[in-house]
Structure formats: C-alpha cells, structure tokens
Amino acid sequence: MNLTEQAKQAVGKKAAEMVEDGMLVGLGTGTTSACFIDSLIERCRQGLNIQAVATSQRSEKQALHGGINIIDVNSTTYLDICFDGADEIDPDKQMIKGGGGALLREKIVASMSKKMIVMVDESKCVTKLGKFPLPIEIIPFGFPSTIEQIQALGFKGQIRTTGRDYKYITDSGHYIYDIVLPSNEVTLQEVHRSLINIPGVIETGLFLGFADSVIIGKADGSIEITS
Fold it and tell me: Which residues are identified as catalytic?
C-alpha cells in the first residue's frame, strides 16, 4: 500500500467516525469515498443504524454489498450530512469535482445536505484551482453545438471518452466535456455562470460554497481537519 492510499484510508476511517446513529447520509464517489464507505460498512456491522443515498451506481453497489441501508433519493428532500472527495480544493474550500463522472448527482446530494464533509489526501490541496481539468456535464442532444458555444467563450477542452474511444456516459445519461480553466483573472463564479447559461450544459464541476469541513490525510498517516 502506497502513502497516498494510506492517507485515503485514514481519511475514510476518520470520516466514518463522524456519522451518528439515525443519520441520513450522502455517499460520495471516487477512491477516497470508497475508503469511507468501507469504513462505514464496518461501523454498520458493529451496530450503527443509518440510511444513505449514493451519488453513483458504483458507490451504491459497494454500500449495498456491505449491508448499508440505501434509500431512494426521491424519498427525502434533505440529508443530515454528506461525505465526498475532490479533485482539487483551495484554501477557501472551493473545489473542482467530477473526475469520477458523478458531478451532477454529487452536487444535488451536496445541496440536499445540512453539512458537507470533504475528504482528500494532501495532494488534492492547491493554492489555486485549475491544474485539474474542469468537467462540464452536457446532454447528448445537440452536443456539438453546446461544445461550440463553450469554445466560443474561450474555453479549450475535449469530450471525455472511455478506453475504447467511446464517449463516456454518466449515470444520468449525459456526456462530459473537460475544459482548461482560464489563467486570467476571471473569477470562478463568473466561469460557472457563463457556462451554466449555455443551453445543453447541465452542470459544472465547480463546487463553490458547499464544503463545511475538510478532512486532509497526510503522507505520514496524520489527519488535519479544517472548518
């Protein structure tokens, strides 16, 4: 096990300890979230009684296989807490998410939650967002026109594909267009607004103002929690 994997497991275990009996819990997607779900499964086997909503089919499958009580997201309008990772997070807790392709469902679950806990290893902490591509979720209908309008705003990118060069399709049946953030002084809020106003753009991977606390795993196995 490498140091990054150790950090992710330590973060996942710490996050699982924050879940209380009777909570409605949002389960994120990604490698760190998978470590969290494993730790949460252990707590449930020890008697923790919760209900959960998953942000992706793979997280749902992992949780169900471990015996976590998964409920239909449409059976509730709120969650007590959600736990998710990030591809990048800055000192203001602004994030890029969507590397795992679940950004739309992740943002819906985050918006439903009274509190969002972000789980990352220290490699995901940056002074400024932008090294990681920004995922944009778009509908397949008319997608060449949607991409052309994105490019007309000055954003360079490419449609996400699978290993066999087929277009990547999200759990909601959409495509993802990964762009490079501009290096000029345009704000992240302006980037999000300009993109979300394009018909065909469903959501962006910019998560601004969602994170309440961040659990950071260090290479030496230590944990830092920022609020």
Answer: 106
